[in-house]
Amino acid sequence: MFNITTNVMFYDVNENNHTAKLILKIASHDGDQWLTGYVGVQKGNQFYEADYMDVENQIDCCVHGGLTFSGPIDLIKNQSYWFLGFDCHHYTDNPTTCNKDFVLKELDALEKELIK
Question: How does pLDDT run across 72-90, given as a tens digit for each residue?
């Protein structure tokens, strides 16, 4: 069994775009830590309830490592968002280069594509 803890590192709602950005810090039982980033879209957005693989084939933006998640996130009380996200837990990733600023830049690019 893979035991992890999840903490919200950043959460911001953009009322104008009807989107939300979320960064989670994941920690495994062995001390490994990494960040994951998500953009949430609301009902009415063409990608609401879409599978991340289908979304990736329809947008111009390719986030770090590609999209790896689509769905609601239980940590967020407002379940009106459908989140699309990626992780920074690839072989060559490290906390210095895949930091909060890096993830935010990736989220900004993803958000622009999702609201076109």
Answer: 988 877 668 999 999 999 8
Alpha helices for the chain (secondary structure H): 52-56, 100-114
End-to-end CA distance of the chain: 40
Hey, what are 24's tokens? 């989670």
Q: Give the global pTM.
A: 0.90
Q: What does 53-81 look like in DSSP terms, one character per residue?
A: HHHHTT-S---TT---EEE--TTSS-TTE
Task: Region of 74 please: left (phi>0), alpha (psi -120 to 50) or beta.
Answer: alpha
Domain-wise residue ranges, the chain: 4-114
**Residue 4's pLDDT band (boundaries 50, 70, 90)?**
low
